[in-house]
Amino acid sequence: MGDVLRSPVNGNAIVLTPRSGSHSLASAAITAWYPDTSVPDGQHPAGSLPPEAWNGEAGLGLIVRSPIERFRSMCAHRPSRTIDEHLDSPVYGPLPQAEFVRHFKFETELDAAAEWLGLPVPLPQEDATDEAAKPTLTAEQEGRVREIYADDVALWESLR
């Protein structure tokens, strides 16, 4: 994705990454800041925000999700592909690497990210994947996820 959600309230910005709260944050931004904007059916709300592509600039925030859980969510979100197909060619690659000023843990800090942007909290959950739809990974599959997303795993573990 690589879209930037920049707050018109305070100028803070977050790089939106798939399966890491991007849908919820973008929806909340539209509701709070662009209430006359409509999101076409089936489209990600980030596509209806004022465009700002991320160019690698420093000084932004990033939502960090457990790489294993992000991968499981990706698989559930794209059920037409097998786990092995996802492992061979992930739809969503690793998180962007840059000098971020803030990291927010997906599992516990989405509201903090919303507050940092100046959005109202609590942040509504949008496009959440049903836990029952997420695949259970074998130890080998989980190992492959850890290899593919090695930098994400290191970042995730540094935030614990």
**Strand sequence of the main sheet, in spatial order?**
1-2-3-4
Instruction: Name the shape in a single word.
Output: globular
Radius of gyration: 16 Å
**Distance linking N and C termini:** 25 Å
Mean pLDDT: 89
Estimated structural class: alpha/beta
Number of strands: 4
Ranges where pLDDT stays below 50 over 5 or more residues in a row are none
Give a written overview of the molecule.
By secondary structure, this protein is of the alpha/beta class. It has one domain. Helices cover 38% and strands 10% of the residues. Strand 1 and strand 2 form a beta hairpin. Helix 5 packs across helix 6. The longest helix has 12 residues. The chain is globular, with a radius of gyration of 16 Å.
Reconstruct the topology from this structure.
Blueprint: E1 3-6, E2 13-16, H1 22-33, E3 61-64, H2 67-77, H3 83-88, E4 102-105, H4 106-117, H5 139-148, H6 150-158
Parallel strand pairs: 2-3, 3-4
Antiparallel strand pairs: 1-2
Helix pairs in contact: 5-6
Key words describing this protein structure:
alpha/beta, four-stranded mixed β-sheet
